[in-house]
Amino acid sequence: MSLTGDGKEAVFNRFYFADCEKALDEITSGEPGRVYKEQDIDSRLEQILCYYDNACARGLLTVLLDRKEPADALMFHTSREFIAENRAEIKDIIEQHYSSITDIYRYYDFGDNIEMKNAVKVIAALESNTLQNVTHGELIRLLDRQYRIKRPIANFVRATLGGALGKEVDVNEQNLRFMTRVAYELWNGGDPKAVPQKIDEYEKIHNFTLIDMWGTGVIKRALAKATTIRMNVAVSGESFVWAFDKPHSVEEKRFATADKSGAKALEQLMRTTVQRLTVSQSRWIAIDMADVIADNAKYNGEGFTVDKQYANSDLSVILGKAGQPFTLDAQKDKERILAACDKLSQFVKQKYGSNIILCKVSLNDKVRDYDGKIKPLVTDKKKFANAKALLKLCEERFVENTDCYILDNSKNYVSDENFASGGAGIARFEADFYSATAEYVDYIVQYSPVQKYFDKL
What we know:
About 30% of the residues are buried. α10 packs across α11. The radius of gyration is 26 Å and the shape is globular. Helices cover about 50% and strands about 10% of the residues. The strands form 3 sheets. The chain has a 6-stranded parallel β-sheet with strand order 2-1-3-6-9-11. A hairpin with a 5-residue loop joins β7 and β8. The chain is an alpha/beta fold and about 450 residues long.
């Protein structure tokens, strides 16, 4: 029996004991003696099938799978259903010790398993950055299967179209098939100058309403699920508290970091967000104010919003003590926060009139665990109380200042350990919340109803 570092007995899952049982069977049946170090393939595949969806939800799939191993990379880019359907073939591939996914495609005998062969071909192309070498039909078949490779394909398409147009292109769930076809035409010698017209015609046919957003993943994830709108200017990771400050001179060289921390901070300190929204063609904007509870930092007294990775970032090291992260205080910073909220209110009223949607964020102190049970969400009580006070202060002032639509349905949902981007959190909700919010947004944008307040499930 193995012991942990604190002297306690180690706890193993059922797959460990299945391995031990198989090894004991071999030993007692007179098999030649050997050291049992590697996990049995069948046992490992059982383990992967058991934990795959859970690991995906928690952002921990790279803990379960080693992407350097070709068979693991294949499983990483597909789905639990794919692994279950092709379990025998995957076991065979593991046993044959291929050196790359490309080698799997070239040398493995797929027989009549065309679906698996197509998946391997597209994944091999993605891994070698040659996605343009597969056919349009092969790409679409993989997109229709809802595999995990869908997101990197979208990123590849987005990069292609962005490079052709010289600006960011919105590639989302609704338009991915169309955008993939446009990108495929470019890969095969199509005229980049024809792309803007094709996109405009597509949007006219599908009658999307352009909408801007300012907020966090709360509203961003909801908008991504809406079917009648298309996000135009998206402001995320930047609190309105600093956005209306005047820009000051910045020593840009200090922000040339190897990671993204410098670029993110510099973009905020240039104070260009309001201008980006001003020139937007959108008639609508959707807002959540949860960035007010995020961490912040300062450069020469000028504030900017940072994420949880900032403390270990290159910029944090460069700025030192003067750039240490901090959170706003609902009492001490009240005057500044309300002044910024008034400026935000005035700006959006002037720009969007009454076409403003506020998604209120009801912070969570409860979480649904992996077994579906509701339990307390462990938080720092003082910080939680301050965060609630900050949001209440901002949301009430914004509603008072504007004739906005109010989505107050987040109070009906708890946090969820199966949250797709890294587990539970005080401003993260069950998946149904984002779908329900998307339906509200679609309804409001389509009909501009008289009703302004929405809070039902």
